[in-house]
Amino acid sequence: MTSSEDQPLSGAILEQSALLTVKDLSRMCAVDERHIVDFVEEGVLHVVEIKSTEWYFRGEALRRTRLALRLERDLELNLAGVALALELMEELERLRRELQARRQ
Amino acid sequence: MEFKDYYKVMGVARDATEAQIKQAYRKLARKYHPDVSKEKDAEARFKEVGEAYEVLKSPERRAAYDQLGQGPRAGEEFRPPPDWGAGFEFSGAGPRESDYSDFFESLFGAQTRARPSDRRGAFHPGQGVDHHAKVLLDLDATLRGGARQLTLRVPEVDADGRLVSKERVLNVQVPKGILAGQNIRLAGQGERPPGEGTPGDLYIEVEFQPHPLYRVDGRDLFLDLPVAPWEAALGATVKTPTPTGTVDLKIPAGSHAGSKLRLRGRGIPASPPGDFYVILQIALPSADDDKAKAAYAAMAAALPFNPRANLGV
Known about the structure:
The complex is a heterodimer of chains A (104) and B (313).
Chain A: E1 9-10, E2 12-13, E3 20-21, H1 22-28, H2 33-42, E4 49-51, E5 54-57, H3 61-74, H4 79-103
Helix pairs in contact in A: 1-2
Chain B: H1 6-10, H2 18-32, H3 42-56, H4 59-67, H5 102-108, E1 131-137, H6 140-144, E2 146-157, E3 163-174, E4 183-186, E5 202-208, E6 214-217, E7 220-227, H7 229-234, E8 236-240, E9 247-251, E10 260-263, E11 276-282, H8 290-302
Parallel strand pairs in B: 1-5, 7-11
Antiparallel strand pairs in B: 2-3, 4-5, 6-7, 8-9, 10-11
Helix pairs in contact in B: 2-3
């Protein structure tokens, strides 16, 4: 059912909205909360705030979580492998951007 | 439909061992995984390899596939034999949700029936699963905001109980200032659970098509601006395109190739807004006619200039 005749659907930018909890990430990515906790313990995800034992993540954590899950599933990486892969990918990205900037 | 030679796809011999097949998969998956690969057709190749592995890694499916023999060559018209599947028992978890080829579906489609336990995240009956999609937008969508007709691929369980990738067209208001990699959250547009339940949400991750003029880096935009040698050396005011319209840009005297001029806050209107950088390129008028040649010769005579001084020549 297309909604091309209706008013366009509106949504907020997730990364500008409120912080996410473990439960939020677990639901959004359809995995156990335990999986999210494992990611934090391995350093794949970073908690930005802790309020009375509840962990909070920035909106950017959604993309990172989904990427980590894809690496786990598609490349059959274990947790430590995923953490390392993400770190290296970030470094690669940073270097590519710097190279691009220096080209100017 | 087209016959698929899975052994060829994986680059293994027909008598390859399970270990060899697994090794081949690992190598190819790393090479073509869309998240890490820079290869041209990475996504298509990755799907192809994934499908081949799905068949060859399971002894039952592999045996069934081998039965077809090498008769039809890859690419030739193919139809599964009428008694296909008779006597074979397939077990194990169904493959992950995926876009399988018609060839795969005709042979193994019956097993991709999603069981209730296959629906990842079916923890809460009555709670629809969240869906995710990725779209390619024109840069203008974030510069001005605006409605866009988006074609998304989302996973769905069809009438036969199969997990398939469905195309969905939505008219979405793109929020002004959204950056590449960020998500638009459409509440309630995810999976609709059967009966009365809360629908899940839909998250749309945004990427930008390359823009003819501007290069994007995070929230900043970059423009290569050609200027004449005298405009750079003596300074000038030149008309320059910017994301918010043409402006009269003041080129400071003494500029050179690569000089960067920053227009604060004129990048992507995120919060905080990015900057707009103009990077000067020196464009040389061609020395086609006598007048031009004379002008260049005069300049050469008037200016003692060795551009290769620091090369030691």
